[in-house]
Write a structure and sequence with these properties.
α2 packs antiparallel against α3. The protein contains eight helices and eleven strands. It is globular and about 95 Å long. Helix content is 41%, strand content 24%. Strands 2, 3, 4, 5, 8 and 9 form a six-stranded antiparallel beta sheet that branches. This is PPM-type phosphatase domain-containing protein. Residues 39-277 form the PPM-type phosphatase domain.
């Protein structure tokens, strides 16, 4: 008799438990939609260099996922020191970020701090690094870059360039457009690939920052690469790998395998990071 009397109560409790569970599932789904998981792939090779001067890191907070890649300048001493300090500074400052609306200030502040810390650590010695940093928040790409490492978005089989390279070639292009030099002089200039801005430089200029966040679409891959990748592989070779239906991790590893397969005698350090929004 007692069992029969409590059955209705048990049914009610069961229904309430199911409702609570459904609300929790829905809340988790909403959080996932607002802050989707970002798939991250990375690959790296030392190439034919004596030391690995590339350094990278990624982390995720409530304000998004950040990926940072720095390429220590091989022609200068202390490239590894500079790239490591730069990346660590950006990751540390991102962890301190109190609101996404401050992302633009974050990039400029982190770059200034990194430049200062590198100069202090060098103590008058020569050294420096390029850097590219990407933050994905609410489906938007925020970014900052200095030097000649590349940030690009792979969409529908094609690359969408995001940053510009801080190299002397850009100055030569401006001089050509101004009529100061000929096209042949601009193309054949021996110092056209020389960096004109980087971290660890006494004359450091402001880091380039995206004026507006870049809206990402389904299937987009955000790519960060050092010059050891793009100087070795063509866009067609990169596209062939990235267009496959494989994980970001597998794509990054295949790209590094392709770099190593070239067996270049002077192969530079090569690093790639791939960020893809989970849908």
């Amino acid at each position: 008799m007692f069992a029969q009397e409590i059955i209705p109560y048990l049914v009610v409790f069961a229904v309430i438990a199911v409702i609570i569970w459904l609300f929790r599932v829905r809340a988790a789904w909403i959080r996932e939609e607002k802050h989707p998981v970002i798939q991250i792939g990375n690959g790296q090779t030392i190439g034919r260099r004596a030391e690995q001067d590339d350094y990278f890191a990624t982390t995720t907070t409530s304000h998004g996922t950040i990926a940072v890649l720095a390429d220590g300048i091989s022609g200068l001493a202390n490239g590894r020191l500079a790239s490591t300090l730069a990346v660590q500074t950006f990751i540390r400052e991102f962890a301190k970020l109190d609101h996404p609306r401050h992302l633009s200030l974050f990039f400029s502040r982190a770059a200034a701090l990194a430049n200062g810390e590198i100069l202090q650590a060098l103590k008058g010695s020569r050294g420096g690094t390029t850097l590219v940093a990407a933050v994905i928040h609410d489906g938007m790409l925020h970014w900052g870059a200095v030097g000649d490492s590349v940030l690009t978005v792979f969409r529908g089989g094609e690359f969408i360039p995001i940053n510009q390279k801080d190299i002397y070639e850009s100055v030569l292009e401006e001089r050509f457009l101004a009529g100061e030099i000929s096209k042949d002089e601009a193309i054949s200039h021996p110092k056209k690939k020389q960096l004109i801005n980087y971290l660890g430089y006494e004359g450091f200029h402001n880091i380039e920052i995206g004026r507006e966040p870049f809206p990402l679409e389904k299937g987009d891959k955000v790519i960060l690469i050092s010059d050891g990748v793009y100087d070795t592989l063509t866009e067609v070779e990169l596209e062939k790998i990235l267009f496959q239906n494989i994980s970001s991790h597998d794509a990054a590893e295949q790209i590094i395998d392709a770099v190593e397969s070239k067996q270049k005698a002077n192969q530079d350090n090569a690093t790639i990071l791939i960020l893809e929004k989970g849908w």
